[in-house]
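Here is the promised in-class demo. Please do not try to memorize the tokens; focus on the logic of going from shape to residues.
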């Protein structure tokens, strides 16, 4: 579940980054906003805020990865982690993702840092599509432009 404040933060950031935004008309449980990319492709975004007690832990009931679906996880410090649904599913435990969880000697947030506040993954989806599900490949693509 997302708060109105978190949802507005995501909408404002997407608008500032040149996104064309559309809201679903009827009961879409897994979409808060659709973004039309530069190539005409629509990207769906679900906004989530932390559950009680953990400022960087997020729940999504039914994660079925789709190539054009992002989960925007907004922390209590207003960091936004723009995770492709496949990445969320891969690194979560039964739909629960904790960025502070130990992942082989480092917090999961360090492994997924490339997704933090990276709005162009959505606004310029076509450019990053091929590397979105691999944090290392995505980091390399961003580094080399």
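The designed amino acids, position by position:
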């Amino acid at each position: 579940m997302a708060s109105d404040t978190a949802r507005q933060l995501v909408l404002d950031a997407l608008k500032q980054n040149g996104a064309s935004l559309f809201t679903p008309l009827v009961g879409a449980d897994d979409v808060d906003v659709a973004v039309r990319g530069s190539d005409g492709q629509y990207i769906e975004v679900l906004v989530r805020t932390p559950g009680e007690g953990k400022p960087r832990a997020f729940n999504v009931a039914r994660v079925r990865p789709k190539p054009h679906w992002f989960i925007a996880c907004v922390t209590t410090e207003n960091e936004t982690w723009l995770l492709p649904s496949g990445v969320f599913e891969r690194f979560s435990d039964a739909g629960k993702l904790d960025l502070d969880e130990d992942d082989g000697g480092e917090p999961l947030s360090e492994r997924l840092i490339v997704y933090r506040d990276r709005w162009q993954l959505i606004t310029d989806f076509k450019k990053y599509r091929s590397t979105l599900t691999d944090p290392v490949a995505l980091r390399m693509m961003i580094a080399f432009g």
